[in-house]
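Extended Data, panel c. Modelled sequence:
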Amino acid sequence: HINIELFYRKKEMGYLQVFNIPKKRVKYIIFSHYMRKNVIALVIAEMVYHIAAGVTYIINGMKFILPLWINLCIAGGIILYSAIVISIPVEKYMRKNIISLIKE
C-alpha cells in the first residue's frame, strides 16, 4: 500500500529536492505524514475497543478490558512496526536520482 502511494508521490519528492529541500527533511515530511495517519487510526481503534468493551460489560456483565500495560505494549508494538514498514520504502525512494523521480 505505501509503495503505491509513494509511487504516485515521487514527483512531489523530486520537486522538493529540486527546490533545495534536503533529503533528510523530505524523508521527515513523508514519514511524519504516514505516522500521523497510523497514530490517529490507532487512537480511533482504541476508542472503539473501549466502547465495545463497555457495552459488553453493561449488557452481559463480562469484563473485557485489558490492563493498561498490555494496551501500551500493543500500541508500542504497532507504532514500531508502522515505523519500520514506512521507513524502508521511503528510504528506497529517496535513494533514487532526482531526475528519475520527476520524469517517470
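The chain has a mean pLDDT of 88. This feature is highlighted in the accompanying rendering.
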